[in-house]
Amino acid sequence: MNSNRVIRKWSVLALGLLALAPAAQADAPGQNVITTPHPLATAAGRQIIEAGGNAFDAAVAIAGVLAVVEPYGSGLGGGGFLLLRMAGETPRYRFLDARERAPLGAKPEQYMRDGKIQPELSYDGALASAIPGQPAAMARLSERYGRLPLAASLEPAIRLARSGVEIDEHYREWASYRLQAMQQDPGSAQLFLVDGKIPAKGQRMKNPQLATSLQLLAEHGHAGFYGGELASKLVDGVRKHGGTWTLQDLNEYQVIEREPLRWPLPQGGELISAPPPSAGGLVLLQGLGMLQSLPWQEAGTVQRTHYVVEALRRAYRDRGVLGDPDFVEMPLQRLTSADYLRQQAQGIDPDRATPSASLPAAQPWREGEHTTHFTVLDAQGNAVAATLSLNSMFGAAFSVPGTGILLNNEMDDFAIDVAGSNAYGVQGSTANALAGGKRPVSSMAPSFMESDRDFITFGTPGGSQIPSMLLISLLSYLQGDPASHWVSLPRYHHQYLPDVISHEPDAFSEAERDELTSRGYRLEQVARYGNQQSIHWHKRTGKIEGASDPRGMGTTEISPAQP
């Protein structure tokens, strides 16, 4: 295929996209739908579909390209969660846990100096980096679920890394937040800055070292990253800069396939979402479960906001008991039972805010922030919703010499100091305490909703705000709104602590803010956040919607099934 071929695009930055499948079946959409946060990633996904790949192959291509064009959000040095739908008369779902893993030798004392925790050690530099999971997820997707060789799916990313990508305003904005940290790391300064400064808009940035690393992954699969030449470079580079990685850490890393959380909807169908070590899936499920006991659909804006905030307050309180399910036993059966959620909903005063301090004490928690999300649905009905992350923007701001790979700072997501807090002011929990080989809790929550009428995929970056964004979108779907509305409507958030409703500038009118304040809420306006990508397959009509958040630069493409 000519890689320079002009592909027709339909952008849904603000209005969404609606298309009619001419021969859609109830068990297959008959069209391919791709929505990602970057036009080049969307184009790469379509290229792979046109080459005979399925949704899983396209997801590999998209993840690879995002590593090149959005180094601030994800990459080979990070990890994430991927929710899969395998097409069939009775669809099957799997959850790929590619969350980063603490080095086996990791201990809280490594982040202390003179007996005191030094937060910067888990935020900047090699010591802040956990063992990446994204390369393992890409290899697993290709080898177990895809149709094409891994090398074919990674070709667009390798080509872009070698030829370069033009810098856009999003890159410049995110780089400004981490400029000082990248200036202090020679590898990152070389890869992502020009003469120590943020590159100009339109300047072409190349990363041939990353192309070589991607090529090793393409040729050798999992072993190309976690063993051999690249693994040795990674370990040597990390250890020379103060980290503790070993070859054993890399050799032992594996993606874990887990059963997703599932919750029945009263109108039929079910929510399918991320299980631990995701806390986001539980918060989403609990929030929805509580609201099902409340008259939210008949309520006006303020009353509905009240119900949603009180449900979120109680759901976020519960997430403090979560940790890596391979290390911590968690009361999921109780936390997801209909009786428990009904009881929680009954404790909501219909007229007044419940002060968080008045609820039973909960274990605090900690969270990272910056991620990326994309989703793919192919003509046969296979689907991927993927949320990938480096944690902070540009991760640890540490790039391993000779590899082109920028590493994550996911060690900051652990409760290194249970009595303290991480970079986002979020406190630690004993369930999420640091231990060698453990995976930190995350709010990432790629999700599906499926019934005999509809299939939807949705997800977003945004750290602790992810579950509240997805709940608001899911409620919008349940009201019959189009996908373009789910991703664009104004957002608000409450996470138990701090006891405040944070909201986008246009979320509430002045009168609505006054009424919420009179009910006992404290409000705080924040900048716009999130970058949601969603797909809606209307099974009974054959219509397909794809929508990319207007807050970002993403695009959606819909194409016919390949012959």
Automatic annotation (TrEMBL):
This is Glutathione hydrolase proenzyme. The lineage of its organism: Bacteria, Pseudomonadati, Pseudomonadota, Gammaproteobacteria, Pseudomonadales. It comes from the Bacteria. One of its GO terms (molecular function) is leukotriene C4 gamma-glutamyl transferase activity. The active site is at 371 (nucleophile). Residues 535-563 are annotated as: Disordered. Pathway: Sulfur metabolism; glutathione metabolism. It catalyses: an N-terminal (5-L-glutamyl)-[peptide] + an alpha-amino acid = 5-L-glutamyl amino acid + an N-terminal L-alpha-aminoacyl-[peptide]; an S-substituted glutathione + H2O = an S-substituted L-cysteinylglycine + L-glutamate; glutathione + H2O = L-cysteinylglycine + L-glutamate. Its EC number is 2.3.2.2, 3.4.19.13. Pfam families: G_glu_transpept (PF01019). Belongs to the gamma-glutamyltransferase family.
